[in-house]
Design a protein that fits this description.
Structural class: alpha/beta
Strand content: 5-15%
Radius of gyration: 20 Å
Number of domains: 2
Distance between the termini: 55 Å
Largest sheet: 5 strands, mixed
Shape: elongated
Length: about 200
């Protein structure tokens, strides 16, 4: 399909880079934007600019935030002796929605997946070990999706933390179905899995 405008072509190309957005959907979105008032389009563009320039990753847990520390890490009301290890920011949001967990988090930024070329060195595992090594941690919850890659990552982290004998390593109760993505799990099931967590075993 030949696009009659270079600017339209560029916008469609940018939208088509988003996950789950093909060129037809990208074209529909861009044409929809063209029907907006200019001030609304500018506000939309400004929000993306602010997203790119002002959103950071927490220096402690690697969650997204506007400051050096995310609100969870900065809160004195949270249990800082309990760390919940998750794959992504989406998983933090999913667990927070259950209102069953009151500790802090550690976002790995992915899981070990040799097929995708992702190894332990590509994830925030060393920073987790450093956090535990600083002391004051009683429990590390391995809240990764129950897939082969998630279990592999959990086992790797379990081995890395095995030397900290005073730290309990737990995992989610298997109310989360095998091969499910954590952030797609309903809040009741996920909340029950957090509450009924159990010691991690080989």
């Amino acid at each position: 399909m030949e696009i009659p405008s270079h600017y339209l072509e560029r916008a469609v190309g940018e939208f088509a880079q988003l996950p789950g957005i093909g060129r037809k959907t990208a074209m529909r979105l861009v044409l929809h934007l063209l029907r907006w008032e200019q001030k609304d389009v500018e506000a939309f563009a400004e929000s993306l600019h602010e997203l790119a320039t002002n959103v950071h990753y927490c220096s402690e847990c690697h969650n997204i935030c506007d400051d050096e520390l995310c609100p969870i890490c900065a809160s004195p009301k949270r249990d800082h002796a309990t760390i919940c290890v998750v794959e992504s920011v989406q998983d933090v949001m999913a667990i927070e929605a259950t209102q069953q967990y009151h500790g802090v988090y550690h976002v790995l930024g992915g899981i070990i997946s040799p097929m995708d070329g992702i190894g332990p060195q590509d994830l925030e595992i060393e920073s987790l070990v450093e956090r535990v090594n600083r002391g004051g941690i009683n429990e590390v919850i391995l809240a990764l999706s129950p897939t082969m890659e998630g279990d592999t990552t959990s086992f790797y982290i379990f081995r890395r933390l095995a030397t900290f004998s005073d730290v309990e390593i737990t995992t989610l109760a298997r109310g989360v179905a095998q091969n499910d993505q954590l952030h797609y799990t309903d809040e009741v099931t996920l909340g029950r899995s957090i509450v009924d967590r159990k010691p991690f075993r080989n």
